[in-house]
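Progress note, sequence design subtask.
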């Protein structure tokens, strides 16, 4: 379903920009890119494929991007298609069924790299076209208010006494940022991360419902998903994985670090496209997203969802994924999530 939504004011102003043709030369607006970047633009519906179910962090980011793209002049239409399963592999495999077609883009997250490291998928980040990183999110570890666990210190003490006494929920896959933070907590408790009792859900929405219903005791997920529940008084956040306290509603929430738990890590999120895109197609998406992250409405969305701005274009994202593969492989081995 296409959401028309609120238009982004910055883009409306940019529709007034135009190229002025003079004999023998073209004068372009200050926003124009090199000529090759103007050679491609969407001619039919753009489909955003989400690698998890409805209600999670990836889905929320896709819906915000959908609304933004609908405001881009000349954009035919934009739809969102949730394809959860296989730790994101189902979505990314379906994306790659359209080689060279930039009308398909998909959410990008840590699982694309960790799936490869853990051998959960033969699909590698090198086999797809990275487009960007647009933001990052810290992880909140929380319980429903009826839980007897009061803090991060309480959680560590309970794990030390009996690693199997606490059930944890994460989504959408093992080895992702949520799993890594739980591994750090296990290390702080002096236990093997593999000893944790972990239930994996297809989306943050499904896992949140299960945790609120008492099916698992502790949930680890992005702080954006925890924000409305915290404001409603339905959950108790034991700690967040940021280096220092976050502003706004999280100002009173302690970090895991300040409770003596060495767990500082954040999830990065962005978008990717099928393999075999042309330079012109990649440049088009570079231009669109680079404008988006400077738009006031995107900055408002960052604040509303407790996201931190972290923009990287296509070329920088490719280099980032290469470095992140090395870092995550070492980190997951150190945590005992994978064997060396």
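Output:
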């Amino acid at each position: 379903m296409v959401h028309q939504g609120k238009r982004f004011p910055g883009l409306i102003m940019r529709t007034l920009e135009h190229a002025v043709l003079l004999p023998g030369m073209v004068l372009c607006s200050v926003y124009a890119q090199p000529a090759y970047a103007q050679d491609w633009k969407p001619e039919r519906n753009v489909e955003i494929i989400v690698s998890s179910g409805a209600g999670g962090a990836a889905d929320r980011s896709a819906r915000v991007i959908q609304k933004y793209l609908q405001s881009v002049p000349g954009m035919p239409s934009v739809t969102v298609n949730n394809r959860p399963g296989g730790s994101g592999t189902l979505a990314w495999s379906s994306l790659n069924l359209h080689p060279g077609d930039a009308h398909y883009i998909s959410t990008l997250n840590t699982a694309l790299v960790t799936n490869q490291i853990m051998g959960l998928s033969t699909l590698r980040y090198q086999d797809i076209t990275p487009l960007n990183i647009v933001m990052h999110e810290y992880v909140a570890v929380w319980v429903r208010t009826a839980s007897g666990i009061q803090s991060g210190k309480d959680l560590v003490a309970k794990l030390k006494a009996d690693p199997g006494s606490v059930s944890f929920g994460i989504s959408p896959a093992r080895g992702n940022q949520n799993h890594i933070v739980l591994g750090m907590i296990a290390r702080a408790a002096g236990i093997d991360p593999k000893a944790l009792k972990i239930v994996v859900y297809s989306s943050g929405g499904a896992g949140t419902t299960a945790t609120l219903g008492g099916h698992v005791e502790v949930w680890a997920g992005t702080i954006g998903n925890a924000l409305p529940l915290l404001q409603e008084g339905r959950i108790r956040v034991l700690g967040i994985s940021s280096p220092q306290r976050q502003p706004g509603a999280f100002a009173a929430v302690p970090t895991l670090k300040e409770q003596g738990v060495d767990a500082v890590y954040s999830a990065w999120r962005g978008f990717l496209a099928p393999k075999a895109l042309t330079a012109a197609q990649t440049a088009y998406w570079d231009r669109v997203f680079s404008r988006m992250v400077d738009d006031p409405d995107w900055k408002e969305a960052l604040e509303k969802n407790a996201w931190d701005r972290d923009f990287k274009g296509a070329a920088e994202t490719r280099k980032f994924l290469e470095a992140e593969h090395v870092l995550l492989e070492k980190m997951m081995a150190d945590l005992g999530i994978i064997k060396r």
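Residues 137-266 form a domain with the D-Maltodextrin-Binding Protein; domain 2 fold (CATH 3.40.190.10). Work on this subtask will continue into the next period as scheduled.
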